[in-house]
Amino acid sequence: MEVVFEAPSYLFFLLSLPLLIMVHYITLRYAKGRVLQFANFVAMSRVANPNIRPRNTIQLFIRLIVLACIVLAVSGMKVTYLGPGSLSDYVLAIDISSSMSSTDIAPSRLEAAKSAALDFVDSSLPRTSIGLVSFAGTAFVEEKLTDNKEAIKNKITGLGISSVGGTDIGEAIVSASNVLITSINPKTVILITDGRSNIGVGTARAIEYANENTIQVFTIGIGTEEGGSPLGINVSLRLDEDVLRTVAEMTEGQYVKAESSEAIKKAYSSIIESTERKYTTNMTIPFLFLIFVGSVIDWVLMNTKYRRIP
Predict the structure, then answer these.
(1) CA–CA separation, 155 and 146 (whole Å)
(2) Cα torsion for 288, 294, 297, 298, to the nearest 10°?
(3) Smallest Cα–Cα separation from 239: which of 133, 119, 105, 115?
(4) DSSP structural state of residue 226
């Protein structure tokens, strides 16, 4: 947990707390002198509370809290803490370009990616909202955010290699971000691809767009060092890790490399474990509430239990 202040110079006024204590006891001593001027102590005992605490420590304590809350509210206190990533809404962005038909990961890169995505959906917590974006030379929103696991699994199962040429990672990130943009929960994109972006929206602009909307992008790069042969064509397709690593690092996500079906599933698990988020709470409203409650209690005490005798 981290505590920050927008205007820390106001914290100097916390030094007035000892002054308040001094003023409180000086005032009590003065009031005590006035009380002793009563000639009729029997009458005084009737109008005064015999159980009143002579030093009014409860009232002093309340006033100290109120003053401290005023100072902390004015100083703009904020508390930053880590929260569980399970509170996130997720969009799975899955590459369906022709390179994903490579067989260096059995039975193919795409089928392995789909299998891992299905496991991810099954293992997600109830009421977790998940969306799906497929992409090749262009991106397509297959499913908007939903907590219906069967619906999202059916969409994943139905994914096939696209006839549209190219791979546009940038547009995939932008499209996935647009699915998440209205969510009030923390937002996470999990992008799985062989990382060879060669068309469309630049990844730099996509990274900027994700950051503008407070979206983390986790990337899973699939493929072996040797590459594979898509659609029976003898072409070596190697994983382009630099792009995926850059996307993840620039959006405070994480890049994971996977060279087998099992490794892809572990990559999903590691992403879930690492999606702890920083949450920031502005303490001004809670402090204002405490100030109001404390002031009301102080006023009630002044007019009842600690009422001064004229």
Answers:
(1) 12
(2) -120
(3) 105
(4) T
Give the C-alpha separation, 182 to 179, whole Å.
7
* C-alpha to C-alpha distance for 251 and 219, rounded to whole angstroms: 10
Q: Are 172 and 207 in contact (CB under 8 A)?
A: no
- Residue given tokens 């696991």 in the structure block: 149
Q: Give 135-181 pLDDT, tens digit per residue.
A: 998 999 999 999 999 999 999 999 999 888 788 899 999 999 999 99
Q: Which of 113-122, 212-221, 295-304 has the lowest mean pLDDT?
A: 295-304
Are 91 and 218 in contact, with CB atoms under 8 Å apart?
no
**Structure tokens that stand for 18 in this block:** 């000892």
CB 160 within 8 A of CB 96: yes
Give domain limits for the chain.
2-80+281-303, 85-275
* Tokens matching residue 15: 């030094």
85-275, which class in CATH? alpha beta
Backbone φ/ψ region at 54: left (φ over 0), alpha (ψ -120 to 50), beta: alpha
Is the bond leading into 186 cis (omega within 30 degrees of zero)?
no
Distance from C-alpha of 187 to C-alpha of 179, rounded to nearest angstrom: 10
Instruction: For residue 54, give the 3-state DSSP assignment.
Output: coil
Q: Where are the beta strands (DSSP E) in 71-204?
A: 77-83, 89-95, 130-135, 139-146, 187-193
- Token pair of 157, please? 């199962």
Cα(305)–Cα(255) distance, integer angstroms: 64
Q: What letter represents residue 203's amino acid?
A: T
Cα 276 to Cα 170: distance, rounded to the nearest angstrom: 25
Q: At 104, is the pLDDT very low, low, confident or very high (cuts 50, 70, 90)?
A: confident
Tokens of 289: 């509430």
Among 156, 147, 144, which residue's Cα sits nearest to residue 112? 156
